Amino acid sequence: MGARVTIVPPREAAEAPRRPAPEPPRVPWWAVVDWPLLLVILALLVQGAVAVYSTSVAFAVTRTDKPAFYFVQRHTVFVAVGLVVMLVVWRVGYEPLRRHPRWVAVLAGGVLAALLVLLVRNRLAGTTGRTLLGGSLQPAEFAKPVLITYLAVWLSTRRREMPDWRTELVYVGVITGVFALLVLLQPDLSAAATVFALGVMMLFLAGAHPKQVGFTLAVAVVVLVVGLPAMRWLYPVGVTRFRDFWIALRAPAQVEGHLREAIWAFLRGGWLGVGLGEGQSKFYYLPLPHTDSVFAVLGEEWGVLGAAVVVASFGLLLWRGLVVVQRSPDPLGRLLAGGLIFWLVGEAVLNMSGIVGLLPEAGNVMPFFSYGGSNLVATMAALGLVLSVAGAGRREAALAGGKKRAVVDLRGWNRRRRVSRAGRVATPGA
Amino acid sequence: MTAPVRFVPPDGGAAPPAVTQEPPPPARSLGPFYALAGLLGGLALLIVLRLAWFQIDPQLAEFRRFARQDRGYMTGEIFPLPRGWITDRHGRVLAGARLAYQLDVAPDALRRPGEVVAVLAGVLEMPADALWARLQPNEQGQMPPAVMLSYTVTPRQRALLLEWWARWAALGDQAPIDPARNDVFRFTPVLVRAYPEGDVASNVVGFVTLSDRETRPMWVGNFGVEEYYDRLLQQAWVTIPFYEPYRVTPDQVPLPEPPSGVVLTIDRDVQNLVERILDEAVEEYQARRGVIIVLQPKTGALLAVAMSPRPRLDDYESVLQFLRRFEGQGWNWAVEHTYEPGSVMKPIMLSIALDTGAITPDFTYMDTGVEYPCGGSAPVYNWDYAAHMEQNIVGCLANSLNTCFANIAMQVAPEDVRRYMEAFGFGAPTGVDLAPERAGMFSAATCPDRSRLGFGYAVSVTPLQLAMAEAAIANGGFLMRPYVVQAQLINGRLVPTPYPQVVRQVLRPETAALVNDFLARAMTHDTYENAEVPGYTLAGKTGTAFNPRDPDDLLDATMVGWGPVGDPQFLVLVWLEDPRANDGWASLTAAPTFRRVVERLVVILGIPPEGARQEAAYQGR
After folding, report:
1. Binning pLDDT at 50, 70 and 90, where does residue A279 land?
2. Between B519 and which of A213, A248, B290, B539 could a Cys-Cys bridge form, CB atoms 3.0 to 4.6 Å apart?
3. Predicted local confidence at residue A301, as pLDDT
4. Which residues of B touch A284 (CB under 8 A)?
5. Considering only CB atoms, which chain A residues are within 8 Å of B75?
6. First vs last Cα of chain A: how many Å apart?
7. Is B609 exposed, middle or buried (0-12, 13-18, 19+ CB in 10 A)?
8. Count of beta carbons in the 10 Å neighbourhood of residue A328
9. Cα distance between residue A91 and residue A288, in whole Å
10. Cβ count within 10 A of residue B566
């Protein structure tokens, strides 16, 4: 909580020096927890675990020489670690981010350093891996939530120091650009594009100046106009993906490759699916059934119905995120919760849209459902932050609505004091 | 704040700090949040709609049908389990399984096909010219990538062929095959039916054919037990999924126990005996074909259903020949052939008349050699066109007087005739667990038809139908449902079938006992001397039927008999079609065959002769 000054009369202090200072009124812990959000998270974890179980075994035995349950075992560990991380982040809360912006800078620096180390190692060793510490850490996965956090803190604190919109755009652009560049050099063009989009999103969420919006749009148009023809040489995979998407949109029966297998899986699944674990596309047909193509396997095994449930779960997550944003007591919480939730749901929606051929595939993974430890832990950490924002909002609401008290909020981001409306008189003597 | 404030964020961040009593709530510009959430939510909705559209998109109709086919062969190594076994009542296997291989040859890998075909013909014992023809290009002049030559290659033949292949491959450039190819011969393990008992009970068992209607080739039962219990016996597959690191070739897997099977009521010894006797009888009496049924009258269990001639199931050519020769006449004539049985129906009409009270046991008939049951038309004559003067019921039976039984039939109310005939199971399938089965028919609609029913015309029966109706008389008036399967093996557990079943009670037990007595006394008559077995009280009736409507004017000689009377252990029906010897009279063809069967049957079944029984009873006392 913000700085609270308790003025204790000297006489009282002398009389009762051991008496604790009057604490801010306590709100029971269960009233702080955003239960619907927590339930949605747990439901997605369970759905994701089932999906990983179903898909990764097939992948392990057909395309690796690892034991069948290698990925399942690892995923179990990741879920446990992720839950612990979520609880710790939740407990710590997002207050320290505001109070110690340097820590955020250190965190961002750490991720960037890890990306750099990876880059140098790959260059020196001639490898192309994306993981550090023997495959247990994938720094690029942490780049996105850390960027969101950093920008949220920056936009809610440093923004007012900006002289004009151009300067602000340059600052945000540089921060985002450094992240995007290091991810791009991995090389991971689609992830870099996602990082860049996240930077734009944060600016947009924080309330961008119309000229900033216009400038960003202009840049995007220029990039598209220049980049799309150049993609043939720079990024041939992208051309294929774009062409497949275009064919799938008009004549889904004629599409080839990955999308064909995905559509095959959806058609095989039908409305109710072929049954849990009964899918066949995951064995040889779909590339990466346990990560990028997991939604196709879900569509085959669980049918349209099950896929709709999965989409609806992400919809619930989105709705709860929006509620958290609404109830958030301060702009930092708003930006954090909104940015992180939009990032998670956006990744999932982009992944699913790519698989069903609504959008070109952008190489996004599906949070909770795609196998991957770093991604899961990053997701859970982000949700821990969102839960803490939700907790702050609920505490605020409980204090304001439940027991009416005059609480002076010193956290207004525009340096105005935020004073609750005159409610009922507080209990005398409390 | 030190920096000059010029930039005004849209949420009014640079508004001068206003300290008022009640400041307005800060402007919460949640617009961007709502916009982004709306975008993402809309995309999510589109995803679901897109998935739903996949399922109904007319463009994808063909693709949908295609996609819903099984791709299961990619999920693991698939091994066939053998088709369920068929054993006789003592567990002796009539139809089992053995490991064989399907042989596919790649014609384009053969450099000198002649040499290869010569070796193949020698090893596989197949005609070389047939093999040669199979390896030629098709009508379009294209060479198929692989040609299936046989699916009954034994493991020994496979080893020989692999040896040849290795020998050829060692020749290098001089080899008659392409030594670099690894698909010259491809062996796929299949489990084919094996018949350890040869042709015993082949008409009961039925045969299997390889069906290509399924995604995987599978055996489908045709006729008999194989067809009736096809769902139970059906070959299954074990999929050993890729989940386990699996490096075993199919022929290293031991032949698994079949998960299912059926235990027949057929006794292989009785069946074998009866088939041998029938083969001899068909040959001796120059009959076209014949059937012998042995069953237990008290339960309806079929001990033997013999047929001659019959195919050898392990020789597919013989099966084809059999089907070609008796085209349109079915597989198992005991249940599929219907004919007018003639005089063997007389006990039926006698029991109807006695049970309804139309005649009394002391009925006598004055035979003048001709009877006019329906006025002047449709006169009925005896088989010898002779007059036998006054006869009681035993005499009518012993001399097989058509006139007498036409008279008896006319004394029964028409409605009763129809009701009892239906009760005896005529005109309806017996419900035996053999497939397919024919029902036969009868007519009691007109006066001539009713009078002819008395001596076994105007009715068509299958041999089994007739045997069961007679068994109802032997069994105290209870009609049983015939059956051949007494237990099913389901997943390793023996489950009894719901037999024996009483279909209905047809006669009062007193009537049945009376008819048994009459028949037994008639059997002591001279005309039955060929059917008598000393030491056993048997009841029975012969029947020789002429079929004037049949273009070939075939003659059917039938004999039904059971014993010992009072405690019937067996019922034997002998049917010979068109025996040329002895003018075809049943008493001279079917009756001796009946005796030969019964003489040995009582030994196999362990039924002591009556004298011995009395002696044993005496000594016991």
Report:
1. confident
2. B539
3. 92
4. 74
5. 58, 280, 283
6. 19
7. middle
8. 24
9. 36
10. 13
Burial class of residue A425 in the structure, from the number of CB atoms within 10 Å of its CB (0-12 exposed, 13-18 middle, 19+ buried): exposed
Q: Residue B513 in contact with residue B476, Cβ under 8 Å?
A: yes
Give the pLDDT of residue B76.
56
The whole-angstrom distance between A4's CA and the closest CA on chain B is 19
Nearest alpha carbon to residue B430 among B456, B395, B467 = B467
ipTM, interface predicted TM-score of the complex = 0.85
* Contact indicator for B599, B570 with CB cutoff of 8 Å: no
The neighbouring-strand residues paired with B374 are B377
By CB atoms closer than 10 A (0-12, 13-18, 19+), residue A146 is: buried
* DSSP 8-state symbol, A25: P
Amino acid identity at B33 = F
**Any CB–CB contact under 8 A between B48 and chain A?**
yes
Cis omega before residue B309 (within 30°)? Answer: yes
The crossing angle, in degrees rounded to 10, of helices A165-184 and A139-157 is 170
CA distance B250 to chain A (A): 19
| Per-residue H/E/C for B64-101 | HHHHCCCCHHHCEEEEECCCCEEECCCCCEEEEEEEEE
Q: Do B15 and A416 touch (CB under 8 A)?
A: yes
- Token reading at B488: 């099913």
- CA angle (A370 as vertex; A187, A133 as ends), nearest 5: 55
**Fold of the CATH domain B17-23+266-619:** Beta-lactamase (3.40.710)
Helical segments of A270-330, H only: 281-284, 294-327
Sort out which chain B residues have CB atoms less than 8 A from A65's CB and list them.
245
Domain spans, chain A: 32-399
Mean pLDDT of chain A: 83
Compute CA distances B183 → A49, B107, B147, B162, B172, whole Å. Answer: 43, 10, 11, 12, 16
* Sequential DSSP letters for A389-416: HHHHHHHHHIIIIIS----EE---TTS-
**pLDDT means per 10 residues in chain B (621 residues)?**
48 45 51 92 94 89 76 56 87 88 86 89 90 83 82 88 89 85 80 87 89 68 90 73 45 59 93 95 93 95 93 87 89 91 93 94 90 83 87 91 92 93 94 90 89 90 95 94 92 86 94 94 85 89 80 83 91 93 87 94 90 70 53
CB atoms closer than 10 angstroms to residue B298: 18
From B232's Cα to the closest Cα of chain A, the distance in A is 24
Joined tokens for residue A277:
């674990």
Asked if the Cβ–Cβ distance from A161 to B54 is below 8 Å, we say no
Which residues are B148's β-sheet partners?
B104
**AA letter at A421:** R
Please list every residue in chain B whose beta carbon sits closer than 8 Å to the beta carbon of residue A62.
242
Annotated domain spans of chain B:
17-23+266-619, 98-195
Q: What residues of chain B, 245 to 264, have a C-beta less than 8 Å from chain A?
A: 245
Q: Do A421 and B22 touch (CB under 8 A)?
A: yes
- Using CA coordinates, name the residue in chain B closest to A411: B26
B67 touches chain A (CB under 8 A): yes
Contact state of B60 with A416 under an 8 Å Cβ cutoff: no
Distance CA B145, CA B150 (A): 16
For chain B, state the CA radius of gyration. Answer: 37
Q: Could you give the CA distance from residue B326 to residue B308 in angstroms, rounded to a whole number?
A: 12
- Copy the structure tokens of residue A119: 């880059």
CA angle in degrees (0–180, nearest 5) for A348-A352-A354: 120
Q: Is the dihedral of CA B40, B43, B45, B48 positive or negative?
A: negative
Question: Which among B29, B54, B242 has CB closest to A267?
Answer: B54
